[in-house]
Amino acid sequence: MTTPFQVADGVFLVSAGHTNWILLEEDGALTLVDSGYPAHREAVEDSVASIGRRPEDIRAMLITHAHVDHIGSASALAQQYSFPVFASPEEVPHARREYLQQAGPLQVAANAWRPGVLPWSLHIVRVGALKPVSVPEVQAFPSGGGALDVPGHPIPVPLPGHTSGHTGYLLPGAGAVVSGDALVTAHATSRVDGPQFLLPMFHHDEPQTHETVEALADLPADILLPGHGPAYRGSLRTAVDTARERVGRASA
Ligand SMILES: [Zn+2]
To answer: Which Gene3D superfamilies match (predicted)?
Structure first.
């Protein structure tokens, strides 16, 4: 269920049912990007073991954005294995839960008529979606741009909209980019596969999300590693255009 899928040298996409995390490996050391729901703590550890490493090899964690399906296990793992957790400066207060930019039970209930929303909501409650999570340990990564000094040397790509500090990570050596929830390839509440946006209720600022993904289109990468759904290989320009066309069709 959580078998890591190697997409490039030292880059693994791990899918745990309804959410993904990513492992970057460099010289035996790891960076964990996102950490699933609260119930996924052991699954994160298992995914590390299945690429032949130990959780103690995690040198750092990066957060794409501070929703419960991406930071659920972060604090517990960081405390147990003593690694630092980084997010964009804008996302740090969100990860500390000084405020919350996430669809609540009322918004989900209002969307329960949509295909897939009800079974999805029942599933996420089982994996801890209603648990209050925060990451008190989180710190801002340097905001000067350029590669971060963690295994895999990812380069932050600001993709605000889904949350105010939502960030993707370019992996230049692998020709891949972590897109978080700015652009996904599948979701339990979607009937289509391939590059797409999440439902409007999931975005803090939906128009901004649709705009900022432009930053992905011209990156030197042809692999997209989303927060939900399988890896996409191909032109990122096409991926962005496809997602935007789908929005156009849905609202037409
Ligand atoms: Zn998500």
So the answer is: Ribonuclease Z/Hydroxyacylglutathione hydrolase-like
Q: How far is the CA of 252 from the centre of ligand 1 (A)?
A: 26
Q: What is the average pLDDT value for the chain, to the nearest integer?
A: 94
Using CA atoms of 72, 77, 83, 89 in order, give the dihedral in degrees to the nearest 10. Answer: 10
Distance 227 CA to ligand 1 centre (A): 6
Distance CA 54, CA 183 (A): 30
Write out the residues surrounding ion ligand 1, Cβ under 5 A.
69, 181, 227
Cα 219 to middle of ligand 1, angstroms? 22
pLDDT digits (tens, 9 = 90+) for 32-89: 999 999 999 999 999 999 999 999 999 999 999 999 999 999 999 999 999 999 999 9
Distance 180 CA to ligand 1 centre (A): 7
Q: How many domains does the chain have?
A: 1
- Which residue range(s) make up the domain with 190? 5-251
Q: Looking at residue 208, which CATH number applies to its domain?
A: 3.60.15.10
CA 71–ligand 1 middle distance (angstroms): 10
C-alpha to C-alpha distance for 9 and 246, rounded to whole angstroms? 32
CA distances from 113 to 108, 118, 119, 184, 249 (A): 10, 8, 11, 22, 20
Whether 34 and 67 have beta carbons less than 8 Å apart is answered as no
